[in-house]
Every structure is written in C-alpha cells, then in structure tokens.
Design brief:
The structure is a homodimer. Chain A is α/β, with parallel strands linked by helices. In chain A, about 40% of the residues lie in helices and about 20% in strands. Chain A has two domains: about 80 residues, Arc Repressor Mutant, subunit A (Orthogonal Bundle); about 110 residues, Rossmann fold. A seven-stranded mixed beta sheet of chain A has the order 6-7-5-4-8-9-10. A three-stranded antiparallel beta sheet of chain A has the order 1-3-2. Chains A, B: InterPro entries: CoA-bd, NAD(P)-bd_dom_sf, Rex_actinobacterial-type, Rex_DNA-bd_C_dom, Tscrpt_rep_Rex, WH-like_DNA-bd_sf, WH_DNA-bd_sf.
Chain lengths: ~210, ~210
C-alpha cells in the first residue's frame, strides 16, 4: 500500500467524502460517481478520483462507485470501524454544548470523560457524564486509555492542560482554544476557531 | 496590487498569522521574524515569507518585521479595520454558547441578531440579545444590512434557512450544520464540523 505517503491534505478530504456518501445512503442512493460526489462537495471529479486512487481501485470506469462499499472502505481507511472514546476538558458554555451534542455517536465518537477545575461544576452531571476534577486528568486518562481529547478551556490555560494530557497518554487533541498548541512529535492537533474562519471570509467582503 | 490572484489557501493562513502576532503584542514583543512566527504556528519561515510577499514588502532583510505594523497590514488586508455584525441563526446548545462567547468583539465581530423558530425561545434573552422569530429573517436582515450569518440549525433545516439568508442579502455563512450547503456564486461558506476534524485525526491513530 502507498498509504504511508498520502498527503495530509488528501486525508483531510476523506471525512468530507464519507459524510456526503452517508447522506446519499440516507437518501436511498446506492451507486454514485466522482462527478455526482464532487457536485455535492464543490470539489472536482478529477480531484476525488485522484484522492481515492491513493488507496486502491474503488469503482469501475463507467459504472461508478457502490455507495455502501465506498463508505466501508473510507471508514476502514480512517480507522472508524470502532467507537472512539473522547475526553472533554473544560465544561463552560462550549464544552457543555459539546457534551449534550447528539451527533457524535453515529459518526464514531463518544465522550466518556468530562473535566473542569471549577469546584462548583465538579460532581455535577452534564448529559450522561459526571464532571470530574481536572486534577485527576493524569490518573483517569491512564485508567481509561482514552487517546483523544477535546480542549475547551480558556486560552491562558490551554498549553498547560495540553502538556498534562500528553503526559497522560493523549495522542490527538481537538483544540477550541484560540492559541497554537506546542506538542511533541507524533501528537496530532486540529484546531477549531470560528473567528479565523470569519476573518478568512471578510477578506472577500467589503 | 496582485491581491486579486492570491490563492484562497494563502488567505486562509493570514488570520492565523494575525492571531499569533496579536499574542506576541500581548507578550510585549515588538519585532519578530518569519522564523519566530513560523515556530509558533508550525509553518515554515519560507512559507510565511512567500504568503506575505503576495501583498508587498512588510519587513527588511535581516531586521525582521514590526509586530505592530504587520498586525495593521494584515487587519487591512482582511478588512478587519471595522466591526462586522453577525446574525446567529439557531439558538440551541451551540448557538447559545456562541451568543455568550466573549471572544468575538476584540477580534472584529459582534452578534447583533439571533433567530430561532421555537416559540418557547422567541422573545427570550440570550446574552445581550433577544431571540427573534426565524420567520422575520428576510425583513430583519434587510433592515440591518448584516452580511454574515452563523448557522447553528439542525442539518435537515440548514439548506432551507441558507436559501432564505442568501435571498435576504447575506453574503457569507459560517456553517455548523454537518452538511454541504449549496449557494449561488459569490456567496462564501466556511464549515465547522468537529467530527470531520476528529475523523481526520483517527487516520493517524490505531
């Protein structure tokens, strides 16, 4: 397999393909083409074919792709043939919204731990979780073997909490704090910052 | 100016440069280099110099960049020398968290309208806003001239609401619904979906 050398930007598009295919399946569509998939995503058919070609042959020339088969293949490539446990760190407004969000489980994720350092919050329930003391992060992450954290703490605390998470064995962090986190090699960070997206769009407005 | 032809991927990095520079300013740093900036962002110095070169000369060889000057230039390029009004559509858990978030104003944005179609919510206060009936979107968007919307409605409603927003004059949409929105040419959409980011990271986990 050539998977080792697939550019990260290609990997980043695969979840979007999967999302569109799962929607097609919901709509009862069983066969699709790179053209149809591309139109749904605003991506060229050639780009989609090129991206998928990194991983093998998924369709026959002229007959298109089986939606179900392509979903299965993409889920396997992205390691989604299992449920991934998440730790939520920081249960403010945003953390609370994430804890209550119903859309994780049917896409392969479930929050199993929630931490905050506010004594008023520790021990309280949020959705199906009980908020635990951030001081217990090292112990609880090691006990549970959770590998992915969602970080929704204030920017000023984010790096310190990150160091603690990495030390405890977390390997991937979805960072909502508006700062760039410094992590050791091999630790993956993805950032979500609505303001960066807004500032990107205002370039085109006047 | 060569601005017309700057690739969108370059534009997308400028807000990150701005964010890092604003943090440097907070830390009292007055001069920086593409190397230092790059280290903070995990981006090569060469990439930063190349990106900035699209817009002119911002530093002298060997003396680096004035942090303040570069902030001013980036803010001007991104049209951030003004406050941008936002409309929030959908005041569920996530919409509520965004309405209460304090971090918008000092980065150039303020939410001035909030809409929901739930009769239980219409008329209620959220932060400094009063939730208005989604049925009044066309009228209220036209009255206020708001150009940017944050869309936090369920996926099943997102396209219909988008059509309504675009018809009313919205030109840019930050979409939190986990679907690809179809919009006319010239309307800008950026998507925020934590699960796409999580699925990107699980590729690298095992």
């Amino acid at each position: 397999m050539a998977e080792q050398s697939v550019p990260d930007i290609v990997i980043g598009r695969l979840p979007r393909y999967l999302q569109a295919l799962e929607r097609m399946r919901l709509e009862g569509i069983t066969t699709t083409s790179s053209l149809e998939l591309g139109q749904r995503l605003g991506i060229s058919a050639a780009q989609i074919r090129k991206d998928l070609s990194h991983f093998g042959e998924f369709g026959k020339q002229g007959t298109g792709y089986s939606v179900e088969f392509l979903i299965e293949q993409l889920r396997a490539i992205l390691n989604l043939n299992r449920m991934w446990d998440l730790a939520l760190v920081g249960v403010g407004d945003l953390g609370s919204a994430l804890a209550r969000y119903q859309g994780f489980t049917n896409r392969g994720f479930r929050i199993v731990l929630a931490f905050d350092n506010d004594p008023q919050k520790i021990g309280k329930r949020i959705g199906h979780l009980v908020i635990e003391d951030s001081a217990t992060i090292p112990e609880r992450i090691r006990q549970t073997g959770v590998k992915i954290a969602m970080l929704t703490v204030p920017a000023a605390e984010a790096q310190k909490v990150t160091d603690c998470l990495v030390e405890a064995g977390i390997r991937a962090i979805l960072n909502y704090a508006p700062i760039h986190l410094v992590v050791p090699p091999g630790i993956i960070v993805e950032n979500i910052d609505p303001i960066l997206k807004l500032q990107h769009m205002t370039y085109y407005l006047d």
